[in-house]
């Protein structure tokens, strides 16, 4: 038994005091031989002075009452963050150091910038699409057409007077002496409006100087018709007066009684709330609205919308 105890006894590698194999030195507290180095700083095997960071009062350590030496700057031997030689890996510090020896995130570009770039591109594309749609609808109209909305016309609730106003502006651009001749609205409702998505309207103008020209060539493109639908005003077709000149032709009076007032008269005359009909203004009807709506087939004044019981007389020169 004594022999076994002597075999297990050995000298401390730090202070030389006798100690048991596999046990820490009772004198200086050094770890047993073969155990990993503990504490802050290089191990004895790497050239550090014995017990450089030993407990107070130990051989080579600071005196009693003195604080042990503090860790050096970041990255210096003995500092946990520095990962110095002989130091055990500190899991807390390792969380902030990557395999390249860099703090995670250091030197990386912010991920916010790519996101902002994507958002900016989306906004630019959206704005470009809206602008293109506007230009396509307003500036890039096919020849001989116009956008009804550019004239303030609501296709779902268009009024005959708004339709006539838009056609007049376009007609003056066609011929400076253009005069109103006829108006027709298919789908007039009792409230005096028309839904151009299901109905339609047409306004006709003429050039007095050209319809009265002596030659047939001079009478070419002397009449212009403006057709209204849900999106466009179409006036690309050319209309000629071929047979003979129109002589002593006068412009048709422009209606002054609004269609909303005419609608009230129609409702009072028995027109149903959901009824739809045809409204016409033409020289052969004189200065009247001619309305055909269900059982109603009457003429009304263009000035005050009063009901008339006889048709007016129009121009006899209606040949085109």
Could you explain the architecture of this structure?
- This protein has 320 residues and is of the alpha+beta class.
- The chain has 6 helices and 11 strands.
- It has helices spanning 2-8, 91-94, 112-138, 160-174, 208-211, 259-268, and strands at 9-11, 18-20, 145-147, 179-189, 200-206, 223-228, 232-234, 276-281, 288-293, 296-301, 307-308.
- The strands form 2 sheets. It has a 9-stranded antiparallel beta sheet with strand order 3-7-6-5-4-8-9-10-11. The chain has a two-stranded antiparallel ribbon with strand order 1-2.
- The radius of gyration is 51 Å and the shape is elongated.
- It starts with a helix and ends in a 12-residue tail after the last strand.
User: Whole-number radius of gyration?
Assistant: 51 Å
Mean pLDDT across residues: 76
Envelope shape:
elongated
Strand-pairing-aware structural class? alpha+beta
Topology:
Blueprint: H1 2-8, E1 9-11, E2 18-20, H2 91-94, H3 112-138, E3 145-147, H4 160-174, E4 179-189, E5 200-206, H5 208-211, E6 223-228, E7 232-234, H6 259-268, E8 276-281, E9 288-293, E10 296-301, E11 307-308
Antiparallel strand pairs: 1-2, 3-7, 4-5, 4-8, 5-6, 6-7, 8-9, 9-10, 10-11
């Amino acid at each position: 038994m004594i022999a076994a105890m002597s075999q297990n006894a050995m000298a401390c590698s730090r202070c030389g005091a006798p100690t048991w194999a596999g046990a820490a030195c009772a004198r200086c507290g050094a770890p047993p031989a073969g155990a990993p180095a503990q504490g802050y700083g290089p191990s004895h095997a790497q050239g550090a002075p014995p017990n450089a960071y030993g407990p107070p009062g130990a051989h080579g350590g600071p005196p009693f009452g003195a604080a042990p030496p503090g860790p050096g700057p970041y990255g210096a031997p003995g500092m946990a963050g520095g990962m110095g030689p002989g130091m055990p890996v500190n899991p807390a510090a390792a969380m902030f150091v990557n395999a390249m020896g860099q703090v995670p995130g250091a030197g990386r570009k912010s991920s916010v910038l790519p996101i902002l770039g994507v958002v900016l591109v989306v906004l630019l594309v959206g704005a470009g699409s809206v602008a293109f749609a506007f230009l396509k609808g307003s500036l890039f109209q096919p020849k001989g057409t116009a956008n009804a909305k550019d004239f303030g016309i609501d296709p779902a609730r268009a009024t005959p007077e708004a339709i006539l106003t838009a056609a007049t502006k376009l007609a003056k651009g066609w011929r400076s002496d253009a005069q109103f001749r006829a108006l027709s609205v298919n789908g007039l409702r009792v409230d005096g409006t028309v839904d151009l998505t299901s109905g339609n309207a047409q306004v006709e103008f003429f050039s007095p100087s050209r319809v009265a020209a002596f030659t047939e060539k001079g009478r070419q493109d002397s009449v212009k018709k403006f057709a209204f639908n849900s999106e466009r005003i179409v006036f690309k077709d050319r209309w000629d007066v071929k047979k003979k000149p129109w002589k002593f032709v006068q412009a048709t009076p422009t209606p002054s009684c609004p269609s909303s007032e005419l609608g009230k008269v129609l409702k009072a005359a028995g027109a149903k709330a959901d009824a739809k009909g045809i409204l016409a203004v033409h020289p052969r009807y004189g200065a009247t609205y001619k309305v055909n709506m269900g059982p109603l087939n009457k003429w009304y004044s263009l000035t005050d919308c009063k009901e008339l019981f006889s048709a007016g007389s129009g121009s006899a020169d209606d040949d085109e």
